[in-house]
């Protein structure tokens, strides 16, 4: 089960990720994530599939375009809880929440890395549109 300590290590590793120190940064990531997850996440970042919607209030909403669907990602909810992120994809529900075999899915990792590397595709969004988006995810 992901522990509080591991969440902190994960945050620290992601926030120390540097493109100019790619090899070293990658090695650190490999110490906590499977290669497949890292490769998939970096691929999503490279393709510009991490969309960051920002309202005039400065509230952010992340979406990741997956191969079959678009997922809503909450990269960091409450740092003090064991689940510090959330994604609407099936893999997150199964591997992270139910089996507790993974810390996060590739979409959450992609969002964190895109944010860290300033590689999010940023789009402005109105509060009404954001509410509509959130509502659209509830069914
Ligand atoms: Zn996901």
Descriptors:
single chain; alpha+beta; five-stranded mixed beta sheet; 5 strands
Description:
The chain is α+β, with helices and mostly antiparallel strands. The chain has one domain. Helix content is 45%, strand content 16%. The chain is built from six helices and five strands, in the order αααββββααβα. The protein has a five-stranded mixed β-sheet. A hairpin with a 4-residue loop joins strand 2 (60-65) and strand 3. The longest helix is centred in the first third of the chain and has 12 residues, at 4-15. The relative contact order is 0.19. Residues 71, 87, 89, 91-92, 105, 107-108 line the site of zinc ion.
- Mean pLDDT comes to 88
* Total number of helices: 6
Derived structural class: alpha+beta
Low-confidence stretches: none
Q: Give helix and strand order, one letter per element, not per position.
A: HHHEEEEHHEH
Give the overall shape, derived from the CA principal axes: globular
Largest sheet: 5 strands, mixed
% residues in beta strands: 15-25%
Number of discrete domains:
1
Calculate Rg over CA atoms. 15 Å
* Assembly state (oligomeric): single chain
State the end-to-end CA separation. 28 Å
How many beta-strand segments? 5
């Amino acid at each position: 089960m992901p522990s509080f300590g591991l969440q902190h290590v994960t945050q620290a590793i992601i926030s120390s990720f540097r493109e100019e120190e790619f090899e070293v940064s990658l090695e650190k990531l490999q110490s906590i994530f499977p290669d497949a997850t890292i490769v998939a996440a970096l691929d999503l970042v490279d393709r510009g599939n991490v969309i960051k919607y920002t309202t005039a209030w400065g509230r952010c909403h992340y979406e990741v375009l997956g191969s079959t669907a678009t997922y809503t990602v909450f990269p960091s909810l409450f740092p003090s809880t064991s689940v510090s992120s959330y994604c609407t994809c099936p893999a997150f529900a199964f591997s992270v929440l139910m089996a507790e075999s993974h810390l996060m899915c590739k979409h959450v990792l992609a969002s964190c890395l895109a944010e860290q590397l300033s590689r999010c595709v940023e789009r402005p969004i109105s509060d009404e549109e954001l509410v509509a988006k959130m509502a659209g995810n509830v069914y």
